[in-house]
Amino acid sequence: VQLQASGGGLVQAGGSLRLSCVLSGRTFRDYSVGWFRQATGKEREFVAAIKRSGGATFYADSVKDRFTISRDNAKNTVYLQMNSLKPDDTAAYYCAADKSLITSSMTNGDAYDYWGQGTQVTVSS
């Protein structure tokens, strides 16, 4: 499984960005996908995730009502729409995938087997 994240950039506070994560090498619909982020000097944290079957979504409290995760199985892509961005959202964003996650593990980065490279999001004040 290979994951390719893209869409990061520099944006002013209050702006929007859409991140994309393309999964290749396996059947996309079989995989749950999560987004995580890591700011400089901080630990990795969960952002959002979408389950493989049914498409149930999960969000960190810090991004709820601002970020939306979605998937397009025809394009093998998961999106993270980020609105009302804040300087605290500045981080490298990573997508991860796994085939056998249970609901209780969706927010746990250690439970994901496959990771993409990061895409940097910088929000200026």
Question: Oligomeric form of this entry?
Answer: single chain
How many strands, which pairing sense, and closed or not: the largest β-sheet? 7 strands, mixed
| Helix run count | 0
Give the % helix: under 10%
- H and E string: EEEEEEEEEEE
DSSP E strands, number:
11
Q: Over all CA atoms, what is the radius of gyration?
A: 13 Å
Query: What do the pLDDT scores average to?
Result: 95
| Share in β-strands | over 45%
Overview of this structure, please?
It is globular and about 40 Å long. The mean pLDDT is 95. The protein has no helices and eleven strands. 0% of the residues lie in helices and 49% in strands. The chain has strands spanning 2-6, 9-12, 17-24, 32-38, 45-50, 57-59, 67-72, 77-82, 91-98, 114-115, 119-124. The strands form two sheets. Strands 2, 4, 5, 6, 9, 10 and 11 form a seven-stranded mixed beta sheet that branches. The protein starts with a strand and ends with a strand. The protein is mainly beta.
Short description:
This protein has 125 residues and is mostly beta strands. It has strands at residues 2-6, 9-12, 17-24, 32-38, 45-50, 57-59, 67-72, 77-82, 91-98, 114-115, 119-124.
